[in-house]
Amino acid sequence: RPRIESHVGLPDPALSARAPRSDTGPAGAPESTGFPDAVYVTAANIFQGIRLEKSPEHVLIKYGDEPLRSLPESEDESVQRSSYELAFSALKFQDILETILIDSYIFPSTTIPDHLSSLIIVMLYDFQDRKFQARLLSDNEEPIAEVQEVESLLNSFKTKLAAALARCRIKHDALSIYHILPETIRNQELRASTLPLYAWINTCKISPEEVYYSLKKKGYHKVKSVLHIDDKVFAVDQHCHDDKSRSLAVHSVRALLNMDDDILMVNTGSWYTVAHMSVLTNNNTSKIFVCGVKSQAKDPDLKNLFTKMGCKNIEILHETFLNIESKDHRLQKVKVILLLPRCSGLGVSNPVEFILNEHEDTGLLKDFSQGGTSEDKLHILAQQQYEQLTHAMKFTKAQAVVYCTCSVYPEENEAVVKKALEFQDLGNKVQPYSCPVCFFHQQCMSIFLFSILANTCFLCC
Question: Where in the sequence is the domain holding 424, given as residue range(s)?
Fold first, then answer.
């Protein structure tokens, strides 16, 4: 998706836009014409890493342990997004797709090696999504042998696959395989399909009025609310509605700052969140420290990105947060710590966008396909969050910590904060500022936000 690099009433306004929805399905996506070979290979390797493992007595198809030959990582965002979305779709329908392959006698009658099974699954999902129509091929695309082999196989079984799919739908009394999905997953897909595109305007580079004018030239018209769904519309939000899980966090930090206070950002995820924080403090003398960038090889790319966006007050720290001491001489003017810990992420509406933007683990797709996070994983995440939050509280010169997750689980939200507050030595802490976007809760300010028009987030100051 395009990213508009601001909220009326605030120094950086935020926009939400909605284009007309297609009638082709719950996600509002146009009918598929197929993908380039490279997308299938990348999607197959993603699927291989996140597919559902079954006990030996329930295994229908063997997948092997070898990934397909790796391809150079594409810098084309649309290719990456298509690969993740295809892998995620195949994962949600893994059981159904395996059943169709067995029922159509592709397995175990073929001699295709096990390591191609993941490729067969993702290509079968796309094949049935195209209603078993031929793929539109590009003249300048370099074919990949494995993809051509699997495509030939699926085409030769086209009639049997269609019949197996029809029997599956009849068995479940479903209009399509989408209606076979559990209700929790269908509701999540519905939320994702109705979510507007939220964006903030980089006022270091362009004025809000120029953006409004550009959108109008492209056929969008301004409305008071993006609940209008029948036309190309955009709205200027009054209450900090970018991706709330990140925009609310950076606006909360800004509300806690004096002109010369520094900020420490932990586990930032998207570099655009760092840039957003920089734009919000553009008129201050504040410096933004970002920790946890382990690879110094990324420095030139990040510096180029920040320079391009007009961000001049960002300093990258290569140490992990837990290895930085509270007495570090660089951080003595830090008054607010923004902590965005790794979390289950089940509050986001579109996990693929979240993975791409926040550089998150693809394991999130498996959790979404199952409708939840395992207790073991939740316990590990909560422990990591607790360790980071209590470490932040050791920075005695900091006057506030802003803690934000995209989790719907109390174990990662209220429980972590409560446990950390019990650890806190109040005698050594400076009294926190008040946070105007939150309501009072115990010894901190916290808010849990749920909206069908935005990602869910938990925010505590």
Answer: 244-460
